[in-house]
Amino acid sequence: MSNKTLKVSEAAELMGVTEQFIRAALKRDKFPLWGKAVRMKEGGKCYRYIILKVPFMKYIEGQWDATEVNTEG
Asked: What letters, b where the CB count within 10 A reaches 16 and e where it falls short, cover 37-57?
């Protein structure tokens, strides 16, 4: 695993939630600042999960800057 990304299991442990929670949230684009779920095949059921380590750690440590989370122009 890259030192720039986290596994779903690592993110779940750090957040104190289940892996299923992380996967479901990423599929619903609930954490767009640090993670994405990418469908591997059009109409398929398989996903790849990308969790960016630096933004994820800032999120769980509460270190977001207001300009970083402002998604409106």
From this structure: beeeeeeeeeeebebbbebbe
Distant-in-sequence, close-in-space partners of 31: CB < 8 Å, separation ≥ 6:
25, 59
Q: How confident is the model over 9-37, as pLDDT tens digits?
A: 999 999 999 999 999 999 999 999 999 99
Task: Give me 52's structure tokens.
Answer: 């960016």
CB 11 within 8 A of CB 35: yes
CA distance 54 to 57: 5
Confidence (pTM): 0.81
